[in-house]
Amino acid sequence: MLRLVKNQNEALNTAVQCLQKGGIIAYPTEAVFGLGCDPDDEVALQRLLALKQRPAHKGLILVAANMEQLRPYLEPLADEVMQKIQASWPGPVTWLCPAKASVSRLLRGEHNTLAVRVSAHPVVQQLCQLYGKPLVSTSANISTAAPATTAAEVRDIFAESVDFIVPGELGGDATPTEIRDALTNVIIRPA
C-alpha cells in the first residue's frame, strides 16, 4: 500500500528501505518522474519491466551519485573517454558505456553497453548516496505512453503497483536526457 510522506528525510529513508526489500519506487528526475529499483535484484528488474510493459531487449538506465558507484558495472574506460564523460556530469547526459559481462541482460538488454548517468537532481543524488549504489532509472509510464511529471500522475498510472513515491519537484529540463555513445560520441537520443 502506498504511503504518503511529507518530510523529505523520512521519504528518502522509506524509499531506501523499500529498495532494500526489492521494491519499486518512483522519484523525480531532471525532466520526468522515474521508476527505479536495485540494479542487482533480478526479481525487481523483472517486475519493473512488466509494470512498464517494456521489452527486456531495450535495456535500462542506471543513475548514480558519482562515477565510483557505476564502476562495478562498467569495463574500464580510456582516460580521454572518462574525461569527456565526467565533464558532462553531474548533469542530463546519459552515456552508453561498455558493460561488464556480469551485468544482467535485464539491465543492458541486447547490448554490450550500459546506459549510465550521474544525476544533478538533488533527490536522485540523495537517494543514491543513502542507498550506497546506483538505481535503475526509467520513465514512469507504460511503454509508448507519456511519462508522468507529477507524483499524482504516477499514482494515476500505477495505483498500488509502485511501492513508494518519493515527493519532490522535477529538475526543470524540458526533455529526457540526451543519450550518447561513450566510444563514438554518436548521439542516440537528442535532448
Key traits:
9-stranded mixed sheet; 9 strands; 7 helices; 191 residues; globular; alpha/beta; DHBP synthase; 20% strand
Describe this structure in words.
- The protein is of the alpha/beta class.
- The chain has a single domain (8-189), classed as DHBP synthase.
- Helices cover 31% and strands 20% of the residues.
- It has 7 helices and 9 strands; from the N terminus they run αββαβααβαβαβαβββ.
- It has a 9-stranded mixed β-sheet with strand order 7-1-2-6-3-5-4-8-9, sandwiched between helices.
- A hairpin with a 4-residue loop joins strand 1 and strand 2 (33-36).
- Helix 1 crosses helix 6.
- It is globular, with a radius of gyration of 15 Å.
- The mean pLDDT is 93.
For the record, the CATH architecture stands as Alpha-Beta Complex
CATH class: Alpha Beta
Distinct helical segment count: 7
Nearest-integer average pLDDT: 93
Going by CATH, what is the homologous superfamily? DHBP synthase
Instruction: Give unreliable regions as ranges.
Output: none
**Given the C-alpha coordinates, what overall shape results?**
globular
Rg from Cα: 15 Å
Largest sheet descriptor: 9 strands, mixed
What's the SSE blueprint?
Elements: H1 8-20, E1 25-28, E2 33-36, H2 42-52, E3 61-64, H3 67-70, H4 79-87, E4 93-98, H5 105-108, E5 113-118, H6 122-131, E6 135-139, H7 151-158, E7 164-165, E8 178-181, E9 187-189
Parallel strand pairs: 1-7, 3-5, 4-8
Antiparallel strand pairs: 1-2, 2-6, 3-6, 4-5, 8-9
Helix pairs in contact: 1-6
